[in-house]
Fold this sequence. Notes:
The structure holds 2 protein chains of 2 kinds.
Chain A: H1 3-16, E1 19-21, E2 32-51, H2 63-69, E3 73-81, E4 84-89, H3 102-119, E5 123-130, E6 132-135, H4 157-163, E7 173-178, H5 186-194, E8 199-206, H6 208-211, E9 217-223, E10 229-234, H7 236-260, E11 263-268, H8 277-281, E12 285-287
Parallel strand pairs in A: 4-5, 4-7, 7-8, 8-11
Antiparallel strand pairs in A: 1-12, 2-3, 5-6, 9-10
Helix pairs in contact in A: 1-3, 5-7
Chain B: H1 8-28, E1 31-35, E2 46-47, H2 61-77, E3 81-86, E4 91-96, E5 104-105, E6 108-109, H3 110-124, E7 130-135, E8 139-146, H4 149-155, H5 168-179, E9 184-189, E10 203-208, E11 215-225, E12 228-237, E13 243-251, E14 257-263, E15 268-276, E16 282-285, E17 296-299, E18 309-312, H6 316-329, E19 341-344, E20 355-359, E21 366-368, E22 372-374, E23 391-393, E24 403-408, E25 411-418, E26 424-428, H7 442-456, E27 460-461, E28 465-467, E29 472-475, E30 481-484, E31 490-493, E32 499-502, E33 508-514, E34 517-524, H8 528-531, E35 538-541, E36 551-556, H9 558-578
Parallel strand pairs in B: 4-7, 4-9, 9-10, 18-19, 19-20, 20-26, 28-34
Antiparallel strand pairs in B: 3-36, 5-6, 7-8, 10-35, 11-12, 12-15, 13-14, 13-16, 16-17, 21-23, 22-24, 24-25, 25-26, 27-29, 29-32, 30-31, 30-33, 33-34
Helix pairs in contact in B: 1-2, 2-9, 6-7
Amino acid sequence: MDTALRQALHDGEKLGLRYALQIPQVAASGWTGSRSGRRAGSSIDFQDFREYQPGDDLRFIDWGIYARSDRLTVKLFREEVTPHLDLILDGSRSMNLENTAKANAVAQLAGLLATAAANAQCTQAVWLSGEGFQRLPNDTLTPSAWDKLELASQRTPEQAFEILPPKFRRLGVRVLVSDLLWPGEPVQMLRRLRDGAAALFVIQLLARDDANPPEHGNLRVVDSETGDESEIYIDASIARQYTDNLAQLQQSWADACRQCGAHMTTLIAEDLEGSLSELEAIQLLAPA
Amino acid sequence: MIPFLTYPLALMALAAVPALAAIYLLRNRFRRKQVSSLVLWRFQVQSKAGGAKINRLQLPLLFFLELLALVLLVVAATGPQWKLPQSARPLIVVLDDSFSMRAVCDQVSAQARAHDYLEKLFRRQPPPSARLILAGREPRSLGATAKSWREVDELLAQWQCRAPAAAIDAAITLAAEVGKQQANILVLTDHRPADEKISSQRLECHAFGLPLDNFAIVNASRTAFGEQDRCLLEVANFSTGARATKLTVQTGSNSVQGSSILLGAHESQRLVFNIPAAAPSLRATLDADSLAEDNEVQLLPPIRKRVRVQVALANENLSALVNRTLDATGLRAAISENPELVIHETEAVAGSNAWSLAWSTVAATNAYTGPFIVDTSQPLAAGIALEGVIWAAAAATNSPGDVPVIFAGNTPLLSAREDALGRRHLTLNLNPEISTLQNTPNWPILFWNILSWRISEMPGLKESNARLGAEVNLKTTGEAVTVIQPDGGKRFFPKTGGDLALETPLPGIYSVVASATTNQFSVNVLAADKSDLSVCATGQWGKWSEDTEHRLVEASVVWIFGLLALALLTTHLYLVATAKGGS
């Protein structure tokens, strides 16, 4: 793995120490863990009494109440669960755009989110799109131990979904980090991401060059993923059209997110640290 | 093909065309830029995914506007001319620049009358353009073409009428060439034309002179005459009858000497008298009359240059002979220190600027009686006639570099050589013991020639008195020279190559400042032809034909191209301001 990306992961890890992942209430269920769930469980924290029902664990019958009232009553304890974060990273080449800080920002953001998740006592899985979705080796460890974070795929996340979809844990918090720059209808993909998730966050990570059209002049633009080229003369009207196209794309994703109950925000790679408040605004992160 | 080297502005403008093209080519070159996705670039984008495709160069309208404007400016810079119909003809005025035009009658000169006539002509019938040609000793064009009387009047300030002659015919020829046989030529003079029947329909000759009585000094000179200066003054009466005038002569601060001169019509009288050589300027004047310029002369002492000669001959008899001969020439200086000429029998030469005359002394000699071959182009050979002379000389050939001046058969008798410093080294192959040369007039002539040649190579003026318009020669050693004219005007010659010919456009005393020395020479108006005002006349000869047809005249159309370029640039500015130029 690129040393620069590893360094960025490390930087993100340090940055994430200040934050904790905000776990929505619906996500407080799942595997047994150390965090209080929203249901009764097997922890030592007493929660309530209720009448015995067939199938209840006989160990939790309060025999004292039975002796006093001849009624079978079981003690309910608070469930302790481990919430889960599924971090979905766009592994296409566009996330590694030359002469931009995009790749580093991806790694830094992933490290930050994973560390914030750890602060919130969440487990995590990091999915990288490519020829299908694959988990990063060592993704359950601290970010600096991750491996094979390579942003070199020619396929968009949508295409990767078709080839090999990720196996998300139910009721986990899912965060998609991508530039979202591919054609197609975002609703389909968002629905699949949102399915079974406690919450879905979409972070559009753009380079400054993506957000702002280039200076005037003749330009041969090369698609970083496909290698396609186009020659165009940039003037004020073309620059305006570019800005309109970007706004239209972002609007379509925002509309799709609203339909699917997902939260979306856009970050600029070159100004990542300054825009982390956006992640707090969409209630993804909270100060630790 | 436009001769661009003739029009440097056009060349520069043309050079801007490829520069403009290069700017647009570079501007149109596509910079490669990787983008995240082409999804945002799908508007007017041409994909090149299908392989290489040659696209036509996309040049905006602004480029063509700029290119066209540049081309128009290139053409304008070449000064294009088109033939346009015109009814009036341009005018070329030939102005008599001789001093006779300054002769006054009733306080009005012929020059002033001609000036008034020209002004009235311009007021009455202004020509489309006018050129002025001064007819002095040689014709001279005055500046560029004038379009209005004001411009003509400014040019007329150069019409001073100080020349000793008027080359009217040459000026008319020049005018005809300049006017390409299309312009009207007007001659303003004070004399009748040489041929009063003028056949040309483009020539009009107007004379404004009046036959006036005039006394003039027509000849004046001052030459060295031993220890005195001999002066010559010639006074002429150009009147129709016998008249008297008073000649006043003053030398330096001495008292004025006047004498009355009575002369018949068209008679002249010469006065020859001696004055001390030490006397400074001589000033001779006549009584005032209609022409003041020829009534006064100033004569400066003649240039007396002497050669410092060192005779270093071992033979006493020969040395005495040579000394006697040198003294007889009158060109030898009294002193012989720092000699300018060394006569010797050895190869040694004293002094940095000394010439040498080497006397070849060889015992075995042959006596030649002729025929002698003399190079008469050499200043040494002037006046030499060797018929009947016996010249005894050693039978030898000339040394390398020596140019024989006199030789008998293949034996050089007298030869000359110039060294790298410009010094002359003469070799005289003569045994006087058995020769008769020293007993003939050729002997002093030869030494006079040698000294005279040496004097001619000395720095300084060649003469101190000159006629108006003549050139005065000045020999320099390469230093800067400043000439101060009688009117106070200065002419500076920064580096002179040795010989300088000074112009004398004005009468009076000129000062020549070279290094720390100042020399003077006098210029006098001595022109009998122009002093004779009795032949002056008033009248008109020849008449321009009336133009009824329109002629095609080449007229400058630079303004058309300039306006077109301006219009294009205005359009360019509008397109840039409204962003419609395609850039």
